[in-house]
## 1
Amino acid sequence: MANGVIMLCFLVLTFSGHYMVVASDPKPLQDFCVADLTSSARVNGVPCKDPSLAQANDFSFSGLHISGNTSNAVGSKVTPVGVTQLPGLNTLGISLVRIDYAPWGLNPPHTHPRATEIITVLEGSLLVGFVTSNPDNRLISKILYKGDVFVFPIGLVHFQQNVGNVNAVAIAGLSSQNPGVITIANTVFGSNPSIANDLLAKAFQVDKTIIDQIQGMF
Ligand SMILES: *[C@@H]1O[C@H](CO)[C@@H](O)[C@H](O)[C@H]1NC(C)=O
């Protein structure tokens, strides 16, 4: 009986260990695999170009010193450096973004299906937060100042808002070459085709006219 319990614990630990491995990008099986972005092959990631043709520029990106244009409805702009912008990231399970915020600008609630994110503030101050999964849905948030670092665990809904009257800038690393972004408002209210307004009215416990109004914004 005791042996059975030990065996069960062993199996649970073994399988949870495997799950943790596959929850982020798979580990590479060669030194590098510079993405061949012109290939029409469909694989998990992007096919490699001939490694003998790899150049320093394949492992490089220029322009992250340039401010993003925050003249939009939310007042923020994400400049991604993922596998599309930096082909050498292919299979390496890591990427970077620059985020610019106008005064009081918001990077609205969103989630990255494939990445944990670690962020640091270069300029200004940001209210950051994430919400734990059901049933608690606990908001964990704080204000970050220049030099502060915060982590958003993989899959959880999170946001940042500039809480100052000057521009803010942040840099974030993500644990995927292609983290993906699901912006909650756009996904729920701006899908194509639209989710039925009576369905969303029931989900959000409001009148259909309110849903129509929000869907009209997207
Ligand atoms: C920023 O974006 C706005 C809105 O799209 C546009 O009108 C403006 O010209 C852009 N500014 C720059 C400097 O590109």
Note: Residues 69, 71 surround 2-acetamido-2-deoxy-beta-D-glucopyranose (CB under 6 Å).
## 2
Amino acid sequence: MNHFHAVDGTLFCEGVALETLADRHGTPLYVYSRAAIEEAFSAYQTALAGHDHLICYAVKANSNLAVLGLLAELGAGFDIVSIGELERVLAAGGDPGKVVFSGVCKNRADMLRALQAGIHCFNVESEAELETLAAVARENDLIAPVSLRVNPDVDARTHPYIATGLKDNKFGIAIDAALPLYNRAADLPGIRPIGLDCHIGSQILAIEPFAEALDHLVRLVDQLQDQGISLQHIDVGGGLGVSYQGETVPAVADYVAALTEPLAGHNLTLILEPGRSIVANGGVLLTRVEYLKPGRHKNFALVDAAMNDLLRPALYGAWQDIVAVAPSQAEATTWDIVGPVCETGDFLGHARELALTSGDILAVMGAGAYGFTMASNYNSRPRPAEILVDLDCSHVVRERESLQQLWAGEATLPGKPR
Ligand SMILES: *Cc1c(COP(=O)(O)O)cnc(C)c1O
């Protein structure tokens, strides 16, 4: 069900009109639907019900405490890439025993904190990282549960910036180097190899690349078994795409079926790390049209949200739908929707057919994933507030940043006036 829906041209999130939220809380404003996020997570749970599994939501997609809290309550585990994300998970009531720790460059302090918290598994990406983790664990009389992230060299056919499973990406260990490294891991005091993982990219719209990657992983698990190293889980990462522009997206049930079928007969827990597919379509970014600047060659609508609030269009040329939240009397024409930041790359959408008047509120759809989490303070712009709608109620789950927060922790030189 679509939890962002229009009634007579007025756009609602669940039972709350988006224009009301923009008026009450100002813009730019992120708005999330509790029901949409819960439904997306439940689709994974339902599909995986017959198989030993752990769904580790990728925190980097949307790390608001309220979102993490909702998912924790539903039984989610978490895929983290930093200690900041671990602390967020713990603050939101998440279970450290369901956390997997990804990332190419974990340092000793990260490792120690995660060991002490008792996370489920470290997804290790290099031999050097493995040796460091072993040392940290040994020094502290702890054992690090480990999975090696292998690079299956499959082409996920997605944007080059979000393809991670090719052999020339910085991620993972070449799959043919994994066998000797598992043997090394099995010999290392302080290390217990428990799993094998990969993550081939993001916004992937076909099932085949996942199935192909899994095939490589299962073969490796069998080889390891023959050498006396028996693993407990396979982690296929995240990456299932969502529909931003009417793309056909594999159903979660079909995606999961393609992953569980090859595991039949293996006594392996399946771990998934979905991020985008849980939250992307559960959120929008609201922005106000400040000025219209029609021209001979192009019409610009200057809005109060910018690339610092929503980076995906500027970073990847990503297309996200932009719609008016209320009916308009104006005539529709073609607009470039651009923000106040001083960069030509600062746009939310090019050549959009919209009926606009200054003061109108627009919603950028599909902004629940990699939206707020990629926001910055570039141009000294405070980051937006975040709202979580639950039926007829809306909750401020993050206040708008204040101007003072922009320079908190900074100082002028001694003796200089401030
Ligand atoms: C980013 C990432 C994910 C989540 O990817 P989505 O495309 O958002 O599902 C999962 N695992 C790892 C290791 C990642 O880096």
Note: The CA atoms of residues 14 and 295 lie 38 Å apart.
